[in-house]
Amino acid sequence: MHATASGLPAGKTVALTWGTVDGGWVVEDYYHFRGKKYSETTPPLGQFPAAASGRLDACFVVPEDYGGVHEVIALVDGAPVAQSAINVTQTFALTPASGPVGTPIELKVTGLGWRTMESTWVLNW
Predict the structure, then answer these.
(1) Which side of the chain, N or C, has fewer Cβ within a 10 Å radius?
(2) Which of 53, 56, 51, 92 is nearest to 72 (CA)?
(3) Which one, of 72, 117, 67, lies nearest residue 88 by Cα?
(4) What is the pLDDT of residue 117?
(5) 78 backbone dihedrals φ, ψ, rounded to 5°
(6) What does the alpha-carbon distance between residue 22 and residue 35 come to, in Å, rounded to a whole number?
(7) Range of the domain at 17
(8) What is the tally of structural domains in the chain?
(9) pLDDT tens sequence across 113-125
(10) Which residues pair with 70 in a beta bridge?
(11) 43-65 per-residue burial string, b: 16 or more CB within 10 A, e: under 16
(12) Model confidence pTM above 0.85
């Protein structure tokens, strides 16, 4: 991903953070499903120098994460100075594409959301 910003403090280091959640299913005694529990977290994406003009040009890899909108926040000296967002979309890949009856298939899904309506899908075959 390529991120740019302007109007930042000249020559300062800009830390970029990724807004996401940690958590998952809450299961007790191996089989009692009690729901889901998540907490917000902002892991670092990296630190990048702002030019003398106050412009930021940063490149980073989008983390493999839950689907949906993720805030990218720029911090200078620990204080937020800019914010944007990236939408991680869901993808579905079925392999192999064809084969005789009985061929094992694999469905790989990335970018499922963590909220109920974004994380529940039905597969018919």
Answers:
(1) C
(2) 56
(3) 67
(4) 81
(5) 80, -5
(6) 14
(7) 2-89
(8) 1
(9) 998 888 888 887 7
(10) 86
(11) eebeebebeeeeebebeeeeeeb
(12) no
